[in-house]
């Protein structure tokens, strides 16, 4: 299996950037000496022509200047003006370090028919070059190209607000492409003050079973946000309380939560640095410091094995009978990133 | 912030399933007494008609039987036969428990023009009903509908191999829809036998900096797979060695690894249950039991702060000086799921 820590397709991995020889239009062949073509893999129509009567020199033709009417070729005895103007161009792209090609999203043709021809030819070309995969990122403004790519065998890989990523696995056999992100990540902040009161909230918008219950502040971490930072941020946003991250005391793993994805939820112990609550009225109905005993004795905690265990752990941590995972930033040479490592203390 | 543990849009959350009154074609109005329509929000063209001359009774019309030529209406003095045959139908959908609508992917029209009209009318209808969001899942065979939806203001939310999900946030203000999965999750198995040898592999396909290095077996967990199960599986697949999961000793968090997503990597301590190595020739170049000292002394470990710390932790765990997070399965009533909780032992 691929190494899960490698930076696949991040900007770091694009070690070889190239523009193909076809990025500005240059015909594949010298037309004056062109042999009889019976079929050309990738070209949208079979072509066989006996005479070629180019109107312009074709050693170098600028794409923008080239109009379909400018070139007239006799193909199979019929005039096919668009044949050599569009179909024999490769889409611009870059090599990745795994033998794949990343199509340049910024140089895609807008016209779906032009794109269809170029895509077909490009796929054929890259297959002949024994490339492994094609990554095709279509920005939202190029949504017309989506059905074109799908009909030529591209598969959806993932999508974000501004684009959809499609892929094409070229070799025989099952695709070896890495999967998309599979997990959402949430954090909860367990904050207890020196009066043994825990910081709790009632949410405004929540599942019916949660209405009216007092719970610890929770939420998803933001894109590229650290778990320790997300926990502190959520508590701050929901209650106005400043905190310092101490440890991840436990984490929960559950599946099929949303869109068949999984959920990792990190329960974090935070130390309060302020006392005055300011409620985020957009999300939160109310927030307060609640005596720990009263919080623990809520029926929804007492009757739920998982909630009860989590609170037991937090209380043990408060009492010094439990050690969770503290956070450390460490550089790593193999991918050049500073990453965050969560681990327990080592007894000497 | 939304509760990260709620099962949003899973099959459990579809508490109310309904078919709209428009799922089989029924005209919106009784045409004989129809008032003058000046504009109708959601209809693709303004319509105002003085006389309606239906050819057939319209109290109930089967969609398949209805052809555009069968109904002739005078609209603004002009004949518009398609006006009432297509545009006044709502797409089939279900309510979710958050005030949103989930469009039924299995009952989408195939024709993009029909879909465009229905979508426009449906959005208008749901907006009038004060719905919060529309979830539109377009299977790959309906890729023609993607640009239609995008041009009507739908945004990409996420995609998987077989579909792309688009959303439309209806109220004013920023979208409150939950984000897509943001993390890939990997596991590594640290397996040491009773001769103090660690199980290591050399990968066939890896980043250039990894070629020839001996590393612990690693890989991504599968969809809906448990971390503890994934670690055991990866070791088994790569080396043929059976193991038993003991603990998560630490985890690493890094960002911008692939497609701007983040990576969580769980280092797992596993106890070997067999000794005979069988290499997975597809992925692995070689595998062996390597003396722990020799493994630790590899330059790429010694020179890398993160790798060195991880190995130090594993060795401490072997020596009984370290306690990681062990795995427990606990039911939870609030979402009806059995979930996996990883936590340390509590000192009594």
From TrEMBL, chains A, B:
Keywords of this entry: Hydrolase, Metal-binding
Gene3D superfamilies in alphabetical order: 3.40.630.30, Nucleoside Triphosphate Pyrophosphohydrolase
Which part of the chain is the Nudix hydrolase domain?
182-317
Q: InterPro entries, from UniProt?
A: NUDIX_hydrolase-like_dom_sf, Nudix_hydrolase6-like, NUDIX_hydrolase_CS, NUDIX_hydrolase_dom, Pre-Nudix
Instruction: Look up keyword Ligase and say if it applies.
Output: no
| Entry GO MF terms | ADP-ribose diphosphatase activity; metal ion binding; NAD binding; NADH pyrophosphatase activity
> Member of which family?
Belongs to the Nudix hydrolase family.
Q: What is this protein called?
A: Nudix hydrolase domain-containing protein
- State the organism of origin: Gossypium mustelinum
